Amino acid sequence: MTKHMQWQGYFRKDGRKGIRNYILVVYLVECAHHVAREIASQFREDAIQLIGFAGCYPNEYADRMMNALCTHPNVGGVLLVSLGCESFKKKSLEENIRASGRPVNTVVIQEAGGTKKAITEGLMWLQETIPVVAAVPRISMTVDELIVGTICGGSDATSGMTANPAVGRAFNKLVANKGIAMFEETGEMIGLEEIMSSRAVNPELAAVLKASVEKAARYYTLMGHGSFAPGNAEGGLTTIEEKSMGAYCKSGDSPINGLIKPGDRPTKPGLYLMDVVPDGDPKFGFPNINDNVEIAEMIASGCHTILFTTGRGSVVGSAISPVIKICANPQTYQRMSDDMDINAGLVLTGSTTIDEVGDDIFESILLVAAGRKTCSEELGHQEFILTYKTFTPIGPACLPA
User: What is the rounded distance in angstroms from the CA atom of residue 261 to the CA atom of residue 277?
Assistant: First the structure.
């Protein structure tokens, strides 16, 4: 057992435990974005993070996501910034955050008297609240309380050879230690549905896993495109099947314990597939317009940290949960080492093995959980985006007892 299996987390009044202690400044419509950004930018050194929803019109998915994100265990308090006339359900959001035991306040720009007065009101609340959140009790936290997600972005021909299978090894260790591991990208499992569903813990779950990939295939067909970007081809990938096989490696070898959708939170240890492709016919366009949407969805389902594999190179991090970047390509790592936490490309040079990189990833998860900053955190990355989508609730077969 590694010596880092236990550390001090942040205890929330709703009983959950976090590995970070952030206060969120949340704009509830794009019209409030500038005011929220001006408030948050005054506290760069005080663990203040900015997130928001740009839309003016209501969306059940966005509402559910925002409620889950604002009560995430890494969040200690929330300042909502509203223009005043948008459709977001700000009162129920504030009530839910308060019910979770976190300090919360809403600044309404139209009621405050405009930009300057709203900024002043928000700054005053944060100055009072920062010491309160900083004083939340610390509590012992162990690996079996961790939820970890994974995603790949900027993939090339090396991704499926080094970083992705190494993440799979780390997920095997996490699941063996009673943690929760989460993978997604059903649109990149087209052609693998039979293999993947054979790992389900029962036949009913196997059926819904297979159906989720078939749904993704239908959705992409209706959209007229697949999950295969020009950059993937430039990086040496030749087909969606080849990309799928590489992406699938991130899930490791453990049995699959359930299927969830964004905002669903697994409570039992094990490995879970997140279905991020909307239900029904396409209404709002691409399933995920970029990697950051999927990261936010996994965080909304409780992920304390995210493993991000890349071959061509990505610099993104995220608000709320730290992102650990694993670089698959040794040449990319050499160019972008400031942005990469782990060099899985060493497998290709013969300097290490996939199992050893998997051990390094698992150790990094524990160190980041204990407080070590990731490269994206050190560089100040807080990417975040929340879009429109439509989902139906999961059925009983998705989370077997």
Answer: 9
